[in-house]
Amino acid sequence: MYSLELCLRYSPFPISIQKKEFDDAKRIYDEIKSSMDETLESSNLIELKCDKVQDKLIAVRAKEIISVQIYEKSSVAGGAKRPGFSLNID
Fold first, then answer.
1. What is the pLDDT confidence band of residue 89, given thresholds at 50, 70 and 90?
2. I need a surface site. Which of 7, 60, 63, 76 has the fewest CB within 10 A?
């Protein structure tokens, strides 16, 4: 299962959906990146559907998205890398 997580402007909590296949998550990721790159005058509405929770739908304006990431949701809790960016200082 792959999670697609969005951080929104002025919101302390990210929103996320899950996709079963990496190709589906990557396609949505690329679509969101493209929408974020467009001019701010056109405010695209992006609708996302979750594979894990069938009734979960999210609609968000592309201009409000400040970051997007994909990560694999592991069923193993121990030793799993946290989502996001981190510095590994050895």
1. low
2. 76
